[in-house]
Amino acid sequence: MTPVRTRIAPSPTGLDLHIGNAYTALINYVVAKKHKGQFIIRIEDTDRTRLIEGSEQRIVESLTWLGIPHDEGPDIGGPYAPYRQSERLGMYKKYAEKLVENGHAYYCFCSSDRLEAMRKKQEEGHQPPMYDGLCKRIPHEEAIKRIRAGEKYVMRLNVPDTGTTTFHDLIRGDISFENKLIDDQVILKSDGYPTYHLGVVVDDHEMKISHVIRGEEWISSTPKHILLYQFFGWDVPVYAHLSVLRNPDKSKLSKRKNPVWVGEYRKRGFLKDAMLNYLALMAWSHPSGKELFSVKEMMEVFDLSQIQTTAPVFDQEKLRWMNGEYLRKIQNSEFRIQIYEFFKRKYPIEMIEKVLPLLTERMKTLAEFESLAGFFFERPKEYERPLKVTPLKVGIEALTESEWNHDAMEKAIRDASDKEGVQAKDVFMELRVAITGKTVGPPLLESLEILGKTETLERISNW
RNA sequence: GGCGCGUUCGUCUAGAGGCCUAGGACGGUUGGUUCUCAACCAACAAAUCACCGGUUCGAAUCCGGUACGCGCUACCA
User: In this protein, which residues make up the domain named Glutamyl/glutaminyl-tRNA synthetase class Ib catalytic (predicted)?
Assistant: First the structure.
C-alpha cells in the first residue's frame, strides 16, 4: 500500500492562518496520522501581487500553536524541498514545456486588453466567458520566434473540446464535467510563475501526495487538474472536497462578518484544544455521539467518507461553551500559568492562584478573567450602578465587627440584617457593588477572605 | 447567464427503506439550588426531514423534477 501523505497548501496572502485553513489542516493531519503517514505544509506563493509580509511565518506559527505538527514544510525542510513554490519555478516551466511538446498546452500572446474585450463581448452575447483559442492556431515555430524576440507570453492548457472529465470524490462520489465547458486555463503566467492549477498538480505529484483534501471551492477546477495528470501520465491522487465553513448568513466565512484568523481566537482567550474539538464537529460527528473529545480520540474513529456534505455555519456561541468546558477540565496549576501568560504577566501568579478556584466555572475564555477578577488587583474606578446606602451601612458595620472568615462574616451580616430589618441579599449585593464595582462576580465572602479585612474596609470606609 | 455542489429543530448534527408519534448537543424558556453571576439538576418549546411527483406493503432514507442557498466562472488561490 502506498503511504498516506497529505498536505495543506496555504497562500501567504492573509494576516494569519484562516480558520478554514485550520479546519482543512486538522482533517489532513488526522487522515495522515491515522494511517501513520506524513502531513506536509507547502506554501503556494505564486501570486506575487497579493503576498503579505510575515504571513507564512504566522501561518506556521498558528498551526504549531494549534498542535498540528507537520513532518515537512518550508521551515523544517524535508525530502522534497523546497516547500515554497516560488523556489520551485524551474520545475513548473520544464513541465509546462513538456506539455507544449505533446500538444497539451500552447503559448498565448494575447494582451489583457484583448482578453477583457473578448469576455465583454461573450457576456453580451450570453456566451460562457472562455478563451477563444486564438493563439492555439499559431504555429509552434512562429511562437518560438516571437518568444525569442522577447514578446511576453503565457502558457495555456489545451483542453479537448469533446468528451467529459470525471473524478471520484471520497465525500461526494463521482463528479463529471463536459470538456467543452472547461476553459483553456493559463498554467504559466508571463512572470514565469505557475498558476495554482499547474503548481498543485506538479507539486502534489513530486511530493507524492496521496490524498488531496481541500475546500469545496476547488471542485470546479478539479477537472483541469485531472486533465493535467492525464497529460503527464501520472496517477491521480484520492480527492476529498470538504465543505466550506460559513458565516451565520450562509456566505463563505469571511473576515467582514466573523473573526477568521486563528491568532484572533487565541487573543480572545480560546484554548487550542477547544478550537480543534469544535472544528472537528464541523460536518462530522463522533460515532459515539460524544461532543467532547481530543484529536487523538478523533483519529481512532475518523473516516473521511463519513463527512457531511452540507456546509456548516461556524457558531461562536457553541465554541464559547466548548471553551468553557475545556477551561474547567484543565488542572489549576496549568490554568494559572495560562492566565499568567495570557495577560503577559500583568498579574502576580500567587494572587491568580488564590483567586482562580472562584472563577473556573464562571469563565468561558481566558480573557474573561480580567472582567471577573480585576477587582482583586485594583480598586473599582466606577460603580455599575448607584448604591443603596441603608443596606450597605448594615453590611459595613457587620464586617467591621466581624472576624475575617467566611462563616463569621456570613453570620454577622445575616444577624445584622435581621436586627435592622433589611434583606440579607440586599446587604450582600450592596457590599458587592461597593467593593467590586459590579453586580456580578465570584462569591462575595470567599472573595473578601482573599482580599483581606484591611483592604475591604478601606474600599467601603467612605460610605 | 453557464457549470458544479448542497438542502433534517435558530445553529452543529444522529439517521444508510420498517427500531422515527425524528434522537443528541449549543442556544432559548421555566423551575430547583443560591449573597449576584456562573456551574449543577429537572423540565419545556423548537424540524409537516425544502417542495412536488414517482418506486415500494412501507421513504427523512431510493429515483426524477422544481425552488432556494452556496461555490466556481482571472496571467487569485
Answer: 4-321
